[in-house]
Amino acid sequence: MKEELIRVENGHFQREGSDYQFDIAISRGECIGIYVDDHLTSGTAFLDIFKGYSHMRSGKVFLYGRRAGSIDLERWITQRSMIADKFRFDSKELTVWDFVMSLGKPTRWRKNKAAEEELHAKATADMMQQMGLFLSWEQKLSALSLLDYYRLSVFRVWFWKSELLILDRLTEILRWRDLKQLMQCVQYLLKQGSAVLVCDMNEEFLYQYANRVDIIKNRKSFYRLYPEEYDDRLYEILGWKRRSSNSAVRSEPRDDEKVILSVANLTFPTLKPMNFQIRSGEIAFLRDENYNTVSQIRDCFLREKSWLSGEFRLDGKKYEHSELSKIIGTDIGIQIERPDRPSGVLFDKLTALDNLSTCLLPKAGRHIVRKKIMENILQEASGWFTREALLRPLCEWTLPERLRFSYYKWYLINPRLLICFFPFAGQESAHHEMIIDMLVTCARRGMAIWVISSGIDAICEKTQNKEFLQRLHYINE
Description:
36% of the residues lie in helices and 23% in strands. Helix 3 (96-102) runs parallel beside helix 6 (146-160) and helix 6 runs parallel beside helix 7. It is globular and about 75 Å long. It is α/β, with parallel strands linked by helices. It contains 17 helices and 19 strands. It starts with a strand and ends with a strand.
């Protein structure tokens, strides 16, 4: 039996007035998968423990098999664990040496020359080669590929002999072949006796590499899956259904030659000037690895912050920033990560039918009978959702259905431009194909689709929707 590192029984954690309940069991050499019902709630709550944001209020803590207190647990996490998440360090000054030495943990070694000597030892150089890292210590961190950056994160854990590494949602930004190489590096940690937590929403990835999968639901430890229970058992536990490959789509005429959005030298405070065009029916992808780009563009369209300079043309007409508020929601659609969050497109307490009618009735004109329009909307939407569901408040719908409904709402409104901020972030991987299908459905109506997200290479590799790949083009690559 492997030596136990951490065990938390009936742990109650608290942050900003919210309570979480987690049972944690981690032993040396284990790779444990963490699967959540929703990343923005359960996933964030779980990771907050290892980021030092939440504090344990009650429960039993054991470190190396011995009873300990909550302060001991927090100190252990601070000194003995590291996190590698999807947000890499955004610095043009940091070097590889800085990342490994200055940002590495145990602090007692930082001032010790022995650590630097160890860094240049033959065993260290051999391990770097085995991990596929052929880097100079002076190389800029920002110049590294995504794969090398995360391999270096794993190497840093090996070098400092940290006892726990947490990998968060790397399937959202790394290709499958890159993930395979990264997990080969992780094997060296496991052989060393370190433990690894793989927090992800891709069940295939977890099943392949995890010794077990802990399922988190409603911010609580809900179930523990072992290899003999993998596959469909996960969906039974969470009450989900696997996506259907026969997603409903509607064929609409399109004009691929028409430029819908044209941007010339559009400049934001910390971003390079943007120059690109999106045509009718295209899905244009802008890569953003650290939320810096998306935060500034989202502030531009949803708040009062303007671009610094440049031209923004929609359907050939030039718009100033002050004019955008008049066309957002009609000619420009905004789809954020969670459609029912503040600034989203859905009203949870209204029925689905009322959600559609509030935006479509103004288009109908004064002289159209409201009852007739409502009947027409209900009839059209019944081809996508059941009539019973359409007459229920959206707060009673499941998250995947609300998400699908939010795209369907844009399908009916039919804006000229649909901007999607991180559409796949935090979504259960079985629903990625549904989102892709809905993006294609909107593109078929002639919309120009602008997707701003982190890398979607792994998603593109797995998709069954070839039309999505045909319509997709990259803006900044």
